[in-house]
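Lab notebook: predicted structure, single chain.

Context: the supervisor wants predicted structures on file for every construct in the current expression panel, including those that have not yet been purified. This is the next one on the list. No modifications to the sequence; it matches the entry in the shared construct table.
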Amino acid sequence: MLTDDDVEKALDYLRDSAVDAAQTRANRIYMEEFRKSLKALIMKEHADLPVSAQEREAYSDERYIQHLQAMQTAVKLDEKNRFLRIAAEAKIEAWRSFSANHRAMKV
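Prediction complete. Output recorded below exactly as produced.
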């Protein structure tokens, strides 16, 4: 059964993790957007090749591969924060439902 203390902890978590959650979301979006810029920069280094070959070079470039690995970490952190926040919100909602039902049964 959920206690008032459980709900208070969930509320505290939502408040206290807001800045970190925003930062992990910003990091993820930046990484996703920068991927396009990085690809274009690497392709530009191979301007003497046809576009399809430029793309091949960009996708196989170590810098691009490292960026994808960093992007994987950014997505993981963002999703972890999102799921933890959803769990805290669900706990609060369950407490609300239980409290409303409990009050209705007393009437």
